[in-house]
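re the bet — no i am not wrong, look at it urself. input seq straight from the record:
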Amino acid sequence: MPIHYYTAGNPVHPHLIFFHGFMGSAYDWFDIINHFSAQYHCIAPDLPGHGKTILDRFLKWEDMGKIFYEFIGSISSGGIIGTGYSMGGRLMLYLAISFPALFKGLIIESASPGLKTAHERQDRFQHDRAMAEKLEQTSIGKFLEDWYRQPLFFTLRKHPSFNDLLRQRKKENPVQLAAALRVMSSGIQPSLWPGLKNIKVPLLLLAGEADIKYTKLLTSMQKRCSAAQLKIIGKAGHNTHLENPLVFLEYMSNFLNQTGEKY
């Protein structure tokens, strides 16, 4: 499956890779990438079923792991700093635990290691399957209207950039998004909680102060991973890099300096 991706910066510089969330694309990271592209080689792929990366078959998590292991390996054989948001953060954690040498450092924004019990996973898969069917049966505009009514996005809906985000989301293919939701549902994702203790590279966990659910989740993650540090971003909910980009950039820059990943 060919992975479409956006790049900026000089390939001889240290590498940063960015994974977007559900219904997003590489475009979601453009403002952040513009800040770092003078000193880093930045790569932002469209995840399967998003943007220009076509999801043409059912993939297991093991399949996606292999695809992105090979994709990242084709960019950097010596490790890379990864930043993943929400769904993209879950995939990045899976890669970090499955392939320990792949990353030199990780920034995980508003993402979970998955659900702990089979019952929770089954409930979630049924929920996501219903959402996928809704995507296929209703207009993308109606789906977005309902999706962003979730409490998770309360602060995002009030943000000045929200209308631009909606315009970008409306460009997505709803059939492809439905396929992605079925494949990348946390209902079929293996629980990564036991593997957190095995992450040895520096790990920065970011959550918005208004996102109570993920603030608690990331606090629990920090306690299970000795390499992790947690930063709470004020004036932000689930999407901290859009809602408060200046603080997001400050924490990310400090983290890169701490890990020695600078040109």
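see?? DSSP finds eleven helices and seven strands in the chain. told u. also Residues 118-137 form the longest helix (20 residues). so pay up
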